[in-house]
């Protein structure tokens, strides 16, 4: 894996090759990843895996035509061929009035914000195995746990560089560390499965393996012998570990490409009161050690902290340059680059601001409801906002968490769900999307 400076030099070299091949403008991305993981099950080593890879992406523009191409062969001859093929493809591509690099006047430049994303302490395979074993031992020690699907520990390193032909060059490295445990409890038809998992940039920010294992064990035991819910309409309370999925649907619908294609349920709702006026959803891409922190976006624009929802209203669409041109707006620094093709959209570390009530107070007036800890399936229509997913969790009876329930479906429309959302005050920061416990009234339950 190249250092950030060497990665930037490699991307600059690819731009030069593209210009010599006839590109009028271009950008190049270098992406490299290396990871090592250890998996144990029932006290025995089950798998050790190490992977490494490097990839370069080249996007070129000739007239109004553009093309994107990538290669994992970084030899000089291969990069010359890559540049030549990309230019030939762009010359044959149909005209696209909206394609192009980001506006030069909006590019950011060094010094970039220091985000502390790179943990210099690399764990050994032996220490990863010891952590995995400790997590599984703690999970299996919880009374009621009857089997294990294993525990794992992993460490990863990534490098990213972006260079454009009109003046941007930047690169950074980041690390990841993770711990997980998955166990089963009970016997026969009443058997249940649950897990605990945590990821961080620095190993020092992870909970202990024993904490992860104990949490997995306690979660599965709490789910044993679930009952069934009756069909009807009732309040639903979302656990923070799955509540972020509701916010992710909002973010997807705010993407400029979805608005430009008229394929978002937020179309014609840009000025609407979507949430209660007290609701704030904010991003902070400069949060130190954040899982979604980055010093610049995928087109070389500055990233910045901002409220995406304020006063219960969205503050604008999330725009890369192509959709911004199509909509007659300005790109917002949310462009992302992945495996290939034109830039997509990504946000920084998100959080739903906490409310005033504790989770217990939030549930106190619920005579009959459900507290959801797991969601299944992909029954969400991004065009209409219709929402339907399988779920499991716990009954709420007279304001108290009661016994476990499973095999039911929740359904509504996301616009209605946003309007009825009330957050509790228990926000914690360790996920890409951080939310407190929150309540949504009036969801339809399909059970018995």
UniProtKB/TrEMBL annotation:
SUPFAM superfamilies: Putative modulator of DNA gyrase, PmbA/TldD (SSF111283). Pfam families: PmbA_TldD_1st, PmbA_TldD_2nd, PmbA_TldD_3rd. Residues 26-90 form the Metalloprotease TldD/E N-terminal domain. Residues 119-224 form the Metalloprotease TldD/E central domain. Residues 231-447 form the Metalloprotease TldD/E C-terminal domain. It comes from the Bacteria. Belongs to the peptidase U62 family. PANTHER family: METALLOPROTEASE PMBA. This is Metallopeptidase TldD-related protein. It comes from Novosphingobium album.
């Amino acid at each position: 894996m190249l250092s950030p400076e060497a990665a930037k030099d490699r991307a600059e070299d690819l731009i030069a090759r593209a210009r010599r091949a006839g590109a009028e403008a271009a950008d190049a991305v270098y992406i490299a990843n290396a990871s090592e993981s250890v998996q144990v099950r029932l006290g025995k080593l089950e798998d050790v895996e190490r992977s490494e890879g490097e990839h370069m992406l080249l996007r070129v523009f000739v007239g109004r035509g553009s093309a994107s191409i990538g290669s994992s062969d970084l030899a000089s001859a291969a990069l010359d061929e890559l540049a030549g093929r990309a230019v030939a493809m762009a010359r044959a591509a149909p005209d696209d009035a909206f394609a192009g690099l980001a506006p030069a006047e909006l590019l950011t430049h060094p010094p970039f914000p220091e985000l502390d994303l790179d943990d210099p302490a690399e764990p050994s395979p032996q220490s990863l195995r010891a952590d995995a074993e400790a997590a599984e031992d703690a999970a299996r020690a919880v009374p009621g746990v009857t089997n294990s699907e294993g525990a794992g520990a992993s460490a990863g390193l990534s490098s990213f560089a972006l260079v454009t032909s009109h003046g941007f060059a930047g690169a950074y490295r980041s690390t990841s560390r993770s711990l997980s445990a998955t166990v089963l409890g009970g016997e026969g038809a009443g058997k249940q499965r649950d897990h605990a998992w945590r990821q961080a940039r620095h190993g020092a920010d992870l909970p202990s393996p024993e904490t992860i294992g104990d949490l997995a064990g306690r979660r599965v035991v709490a789910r044993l012998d679930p009952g069934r819910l009756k069909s009807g309409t009732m309040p639903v309370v979302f656990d923070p570990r799955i509540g972020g999925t509701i916010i992710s649907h909002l973010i997807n619908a705010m993407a400029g490409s979805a608005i430009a294609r008229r394929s978002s349920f937020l179309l014609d709702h840009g000025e609407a009161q979507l949430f209660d006026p007290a609701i704030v959803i904010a991003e902070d891409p400069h949060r130190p050690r954040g899982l979604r922190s980055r010093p610049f976006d995928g087109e070389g624009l500055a990233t910045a902290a901002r409220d995406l929802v304020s006063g219960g209203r969205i503050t604008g669409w999330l725009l890369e340059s192509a959709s911004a041109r199509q909509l007659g707006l300005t790109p917002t620094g949310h462009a992302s680059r992945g495996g290939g093709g034109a830039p997509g959209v990504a946000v920084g570390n998100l959080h739903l601001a906490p409310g005033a009530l504790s989770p217990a107070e939030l549930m106190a007036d619920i005579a009959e409801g459900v507290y959801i800890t797991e969601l299944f399936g992909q029954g969400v229509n991004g065009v209409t906002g219709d929402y339907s997913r399988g779920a499991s969790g716990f009954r709420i009876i007279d304001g108290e968490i009661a016994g476990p329930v499973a095999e039911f479906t929740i359904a509504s429309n996301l616009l209605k769900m946003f309007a009825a959302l009330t957050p509790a005050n228990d926000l914690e920061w360790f996920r890409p999307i951080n939310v407190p416990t929150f309540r949504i009234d009036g969801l339809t339950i399909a059970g018995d």
